[in-house]
Amino acid sequence: MKQYLTPLFLSVVMTLPLSIAQASDISGISPKATYELLQQKPDEVLFIDVRDPIEIMFIGFTDEVDLNIPYLMVDRSQWDAKKNRFRLYQNPDFATQVEQALLQRGLDKQATVITMCRSGSERGLPSAEFLRKHGFPNATYMINGFQGSSAKEGEKTGFRIQNGWQNSGLPWGSKPNPDKIYRIDR
């Protein structure tokens, strides 16, 4: 039996994207399943958008999130010539801010925390792994994130028109909620 399962397991793992194949024990949750969970158990889940607030302003937002707590932030004073973009740095208060958000809702670190970024891989999965390493055992991420995957062929190649929250018929808008967006002015 083992001789049949090993090749099957390897063939499945080899077809997964590298970031998912290397993931620890976090399998993620789909946008639709996230939405359904939020409808069924709104008082038991913390749903956070981990994107930089500037990205949200230009791409869109869902008011279904409890808060925007950035995992990686853009340092507009430092240019990363190697990656041809501004330098990204990890929010040093991320875990503390997530814990505070849980406490404000009457929840503790054992609660389900779902993180959402643009695509699910660059910040969604890493932020959930980070939270797990820092004492949030039920942290997970939303697969394909807010905007989803890019089309690989056709006239819309490169456009993020596949999967994700935005492309799943779930509620979203172009303007962020000022009470939920990450702000340093208060």
UniProtKB/TrEMBL annotation:
Ranges that cross the membrane: none
Residue ranges annotated for the Rhodanese domain, each copy included: 41-158
Keyword Signal: yes
SMART domains: RHOD
Gene3D superfamilies found in the cross-reference section: Rhodanese-like domain (3.40.250.10)
Key words of the record: Signal
Source organism, top-level taxon: Bacteria
Protein name: Rhodanese-like domain-containing protein
Source organism per UniProt: Neptuniibacter pectenicola
